[in-house]
Design goal:
about 575 residues, alpha/beta, Alpha-D-Glucose-1,6-Bisphosphate, Chain A, domain 3, TATA-Binding Protein, 3 domains, eight-stranded antiparallel sheet, globular
């Protein structure tokens, strides 16, 4: 079957010279042909993501065109005069795929708003809402290595496409011939005919104004704060620097070798601010600059990681640590300034630290838990908006370095997060504390929660089967302990049941079904396992609770060893 597809592509995939060359080169490599054609690249609520190249299981102008044909028919079913906003980041062929999507939409009679240069993912969410579009597209593979690209689709609310809409798009894609039934027009002609329109600079200015409005300590003098920033060759360079300048932070040093957009990521093969390697260039520069704070945003600028001075060195903070710090800072300052709304709400994902619950309880606010994925946080804001109560939402975050204050967008936003992190660092500096000391205060008050995440890559057909087998074993094998640690509760989000291991009493989980399993131990520590929705990986989330950082860290190492053994790696 895949050889037939390969033959068809050799005949018809003639619009991209890179694909023509790749198809020729794989002629004698049956394994390469199999991997490229054994399935279609899957379209889900996260859109598409895959390796760039030739084939139905790859990111290319044809798979992008097919997905966009489905999206075009969806928005046409929803509106007589639909419009779609498009953004793209610095990845290889991102601009090409963005123009391909725009050309398909225009050919179907859909008005297109497209940014004239690369822009962060949250600015796409903002444009959809600001321009009152029916949908949005951003071409990005977030923090994945250079060989990947992706296609995220958004609904009219600025959230990633809902399940029903994604299923509609997929149903159209399944019927459309990838070569003969995808409508397409000339991009430049569509611009001349004003079917495709470049997004005005006023939208960018409005976005930055909305970001700045999320400040909680406007009176704070930030001129003494010294920052090193790296956009990791991505789209954050201009907007992050712009918002820091608006705040009055003039002493910003941008890592020179990572400033310019480059989809090959030559200085950061894994452009992910969750890992130390992404900070190496910034840390070398820190020896000379001696900053108060280091910031790194990923290529589409929806995630941000930080490092800060600790005992003469620079410590990288986890997403959970930064999220807990930000929530505590926002609640503390807004309480002091009497700007905290009645019945305030914060939102986190189920794999995010339970320390957040302790902080929320202390300040008397509601904390809502949602499934993994920032779109579920966005949905909670939308629910509040429908009631006219979106001002109750103050902060949401997930452990994977995604944060959002305010309701102006419906996705994680590294621009607003960078702003608030800098403000927070300046505030603690003004009262004689470092960020690490502030984190220590939180641990002393609420307990020490040390968390980590381990991903195991399982590529190809065999990898998919391995992930399936692991989840099946976790779900159906009876166990009361893991490596000698007694289990108190097992949460199966696919069956929507929590089982008390001691009493065998089952209770319902009031969340949509999801392929996630969690094991909670008698000391409050936990292991949660889920397949990635966007990468060929199975992920394990670990949370250790201890009296202090040393005991919690020891417990975390025990969990990491036990969890790795549990999954068979």
């Amino acid at each position: 079957m895949y050889m037939e597809k390969y033959g068809l592509w050799c005949k018809k995939a003639t619009e991209d010279n890179d694909l023509i060359e790749e198809l020729k080169n794989m002629a004698e490599d049956s394994e390469a042909i199999s991997e490229a054609f054994y399935k279609d690249l899957e379209f889900g609520t996260g859109g598409l993501r895959g390796v760039i190249g030739a084939g139905t299981n790859r990111m290319n102008i044809y798979t992008v065109g097919k997905a966009t044909q489905g999206l075009a028919e969806y928005v046409l079913s929803q509106s007589n005069h639909p419009s779609v906003a498009i953004a793209y980041d610095s990845r290889i062929k991102s601009d090409v795929f963005a123009k391909t999507a725009a050309s398909v939409l225009a050919a179907n009679g859909v008005h297109v708003y497209i940014y004239s240069e690369l822009m962060p993912t949250p600015m796409l969410s903002f444009a959809v809402r600001e321009l009152k579009c029916d949908a949005g597209i951003v071409i990005t593979a977030s923090h994945n290595p250079a060989k990947y690209n992706g296609y995220k689709a958004y609904g009219p609310d600025g959230c990633q496409l809902c399940l029903e809409a994604a299923e509609y798009v997929l149903s159209i894609m399944n019927k459309v011939d990838i070569f003969d039934q995808v409508e397409k027009t000339d991009f430049d002609k569509a611009v001349a005919d004003e079917i495709i329109e470049y997004i005005d600079k006023s939208v960018i200015e409005s976005y930055l104004e909305n970001v700045e409005a999320q400040r909680v300590s406007n009176e704070l003098d930030l001129s003494n704060l010294k920052v090193i920033y790296t956009p990791l060759h991505g789209s954050g360079n201009k907007p992050v620097r712009a918002i820091l300048k608006k705040m009055g932070i003039e002493n910003v040093t941008v890592v020179p070798q990572q400033e310019k957009p480059d989809g090959n990521f030559p200085t950061a093969p894994y452009p992910n601010p969750e890992i130390r390697q992404a900070f190496e260039a910034a840390l070398k520069l820190a020896d000379e600059v001696k900053p108060d704070l280091l910031l790194a945003t990923d290529p589409d600028c929806d995630r941000v990681g930080i490092a800060a001075p600790v005992n003469g060195d620079y410590r990288l903070f986890t997403g959970n640590e930064v999220g807990a710090l930000l929530l505590h800072y926002i609640l503390t300052r807004r309480t002091e300034k009497n700007t905290l709304p009645d019945n305030a709400i914060a939102v986190k994902t189920i794999v995010t630290t339970e320390l957040t619950q302790k902080i929320a309880d202390d300040f008397g606010i509601e904390l809502i838990n949602v499934l993994t994925g920032f779109k579920f946080i966005g949905e909670q804001i939308a629910i509040l908006e429908e009631k006219g109560e979106e001002n109750r939402y103050i902060f949401g975050f997930e452990e994977s370095y995604g944060y959002l204050a305010g309701s102006y967008v419906r996705d994680k936003d590294a621009v607003v997060a960078s702003m608030l992190i800098c403000e927070m660092a300046a505030y603690y500096k003004s009262i004689g504390k470092t960020l690490y000391q502030a984190l220590g205060d939180i641990y002393n008050k609420y307990g020490c929660y040390i968390c980590s995440q381990i991903s195991f890559t399982c590529e190809g057909q065999s990898g998919m089967q391995k992930i399936f087998d692991i989840m099946k074993d976790l779900r159906y094998s009876s166990r009361k302990e893991i490596s000698g640690m007694s289990i108190s509760r097992i949460s199966d989000y696919e069956t929507s049941l929590v089982t008390d291991v001691i009493t065998d009493i089952k209770t319902n989980i009031e969340l949509p079904k999801s392929n996630v399993i969690g094991f909670e131990f008698t000391d409050g520590s936990s292991i949660i396992v889920r397949p990635s929705g966007t990468e060929p990986k199975i992920k394990m989330y670990l949370s250790a609770v201890g009296k202090d950082e040393e005991s919690a860290t020891d417990k975390l190492h025990q969990l990491e060893e036990a969890g790795t053994k549990l999954l068979g790696f």
